[in-house]
Write a structure and sequence with these properties.
By secondary structure, this protein is mainly alpha-helical. The chain has a two-stranded antiparallel ribbon with strand order 1-2. It contains three helices and two strands, in the order H-H-H-E-E. A hairpin with a 2-residue loop joins strand 1 and strand 2. It has a domain of 38 residues: Histone, subunit A.
């Protein structure tokens, strides 16, 4: 499939690309070649091919959740640079409107 000059200009505008004439021509040829490969794939008979979601079988590799005690609140607060009423106090990161 040949990408037209108008389609190429539209793609360049969408991608906000500033290309020289030579770069535009090279990219237009490359994209046309890629679209040509898709045309070739579209022409293949895939009627007897089973649909494939993943090329390999995946296994759940996550560990089981284990309930355990966490850092005690008092210990966490003792590590705080600044605390107020049992909470960490941090610098404001969002300006008020």
């Amino acid at each position: 499939m040949e990408l037209s000059d108008l389609e190429m200009a539209h793609l360049k505008r969408l991608a906000r690309l500033e290309l020289s004439r030579e770069e535009t021509a090279a990219l237009q040829k490359d994209l046309s070649d890629i679209l040509g490969y898709f045309d070739q794939l579209r022409g293949l008979d895939t009627g007897g091919v089973e649909e494939l979601v993943r090329p390999i079988t995946t296994v759940d590799v996550f560990r089981e959740d284990v309930i355990r005690l966490s850092l005690p609140h008092e210990k966490a607060m003792s590590l705080a640079v600044e605390a107020q009423e049992g909470f960490f106090r941090v610098p404001r990161t969002v300006e008020e409107a």
